[in-house]
Amino acid sequence: MNASAVSVPMVSLKGVCKSYGPVQVLQDFELDVARGEVVTLIGPSGSGKTTALRCMNFLEAHDAGEVRIRGALLGYSTRSDGTRQRESERSVAEVRACVAMVFQQFNLWPHMRVIENVMAPLTIARGVPAEQARARAQKALERVGLGAKAQAYPAQLSGGQQQRVGIARALVVEPEVMLLDEPTSALDPELVDEVLEVILSLAREGMTMVMVTHEMGFAAKVSTRVVFMEAGRIVEQGPPATLFQTPKTERLRAFLRTWLSRQRQAFELPVNDGATA
Predict the structure, then answer these.
(1) Which of 61, 69, 182, 244 has a CA that sits 20 to 30 A from residue 95's CA?
(2) Each residue's pLDDT tens digit, 63-96
């Protein structure tokens, strides 16, 4: 791989806008993600985090601006007169072939065994022969610690295990970029750690990732860069140690105070004032 290829961002958004009716969710959003970076998007609900993530693989079509994957335009090309032209589904699929996504919900087919769920992106979407797909799926399951569950059905797994199957399904296509949309939000607290440990191991292996999460502690641990968003824009970004310990903007300080307050309240015990029922 030559130096110029390495210098091109794996994911690049320039001036991206997205509206739903009268509500503008992204406003001139700009973000570059380098190879090997783990970028975490944080911010209040409605700040545009998930929309930005979904624009990165064209699950949401952006209204303006450019999205590039490894330098290639995603979704639209520019005509000679400067107007945009939507690309074919085949072209979109080719550009985003190196990108995989893990969703909040597990989205596993209940009538299919675990290994069949993981094989599906290969056999259904890419036409990979079943025997080859099965071998790759087994390898992906072993990578997330679920090799022994290949023949189980989703209903026989815990929520944490089902999300790890979701991660294996993303890994089976051998992506260069993984997008993770609040991968632990649907889990009971006791199941969160097993999923976070898998994500942390991928980060240590050098996987490029962009993640939306409300797990501030995990964001601080796994990220190379944290991006704080509000109202469809980036308010502040930087290394987690800097962002969490010495925020520059009052808005981020207020956000972190609210989060820290909720954490403290979760551990406060009710005061027994001696009253009887």
Answers:
(1) 182
(2) 999 999 999 999 998 888 888 999 999 999 999 9
Q: Angle 159-171/114-123 helices, nearest 10 degrees?
A: 30
**33 strand-pairing partners:** 11
pTM of the complete model: 0.89
Q: What pLDDT is attached to residue 263? A: 61
d(CA 139, CA 132): 11
Q: Which helix (H) or strand (E) holds 78?
A: strand 76-78
Question: Could you tell me which residues are beta bridge partners of residue 26?
Answer: 18
Tokens of 124: 């259904």
One-letter identity of residue 164? R
Tracing tokens 């080719």 back to the chain, one arrives at 94
Distance between CA atoms of residues 141 and 166, nearest Å: 10
Burial class for 268, CB neighbours closer than 10 Å (0-12, 13-18, 19+): exposed
Return the structure tokens found at 199: 């994500």
Q: How far apart are the C-alpha atoms of 41 and 226, rounded to whole Å?
A: 6
- In tens, the pLDDT along 241-270 reads 999 999 999 999 999 987 777 666 655 555
CA atoms within 13 A on the CB side of 10: 22
Residue 273: exposure state from Cβ atoms within 10 A (0-12, 13-18, ≥19): exposed
